[in-house]
Amino acid sequence: MSAPARFDVVPELHLLPAHARCPLCGSDRPRTEVALLQEDPRVAMSACPDCRGMSADRFPDDAFLRALYDPAHYASDLLQNARPTERCARHVASFVEAAADCDLRILDYGGSDGSLSQALAEALRRRGYRGRLEFTIVDFAPAKSHDEFHFIDVDAFYGLEDPFDVVLASAVLEHLTEFPRTVQKLLSLAGPGALFYARTPYEVPLQRRFPGYRVRWPRHVHDLGPAFWDRFLATFGVAGRLRRSAPSIVESDWRQKPVRTAIATALKAPGHLETAWLKPALGYSGNAWHWVGGWEVVLQLGVSDG
Prior knowledge:
The protein is about 30% helix and about 25% strand. By secondary structure, it is an alpha/beta fold. It has a single domain (about 75-300), classed as Vaccinia Virus protein VP39 (Rossmann fold, 3-Layer(aba) Sandwich), CATH 3.40.50. β7, α5 and β8 form a beta-alpha-beta unit. It is globular, with a radius of gyration of 19 Å.
């Protein structure tokens, strides 16, 4: 197959058949269409009644994805600017509760050039960690390993066996066409008490509310908000507790994109208020404010919720 000439629409030639089951959890219950991704050929985002995640009803094939994610023109949203990356690293580091002199093994799945891992190493050192830090960074086009940063490709990832203390999946799960296999592997590599951090887009509510806004298809084949993450541990049969479930950090930077950053900050603010104050104070479940663009979770795996 020839490489596609454009990436905003997936031609029929590069579309796989429609899913018979939910590509996130495997449920065979009918899914509900929630957003139109492209008109010709028609592809829609549909919601699963069991896991509450949303996925495209057809995926691009491997040839299209290889061209789409060619490192020559593709870069993660967060890694396009150092300041949001450093902010994300400081945020993740604040949840790490290991002793200052212990060793930490950290898995960064979809870590690109290792920018987030390097920023996290610096953030942990500033917080007083003196132990050995060992990072394993997984990506399609791994960089050269150096110092405490070990880069591997996706095939080698499935051969990993030793447990990690921190598992990062920042801005990557929305791209997975083999979601259950990859997530189960990530969870299996989390040692007892390991920290699991994920950041995913939650854009469907914005598309439904604001004319002209479009989910970033075909880069994103899943849209995963609070309803999905509230059920995540039960969906995948994993013991653990949810430490944080809230709108994700703002990806852009005030200096480079002030208008976009101002809009994103304003949209996320009510969501932060709801998750940090209203829900604990009033004791209700679910979320009333959905127009945040992205979601993040922090899970402590292998521990009880009590």
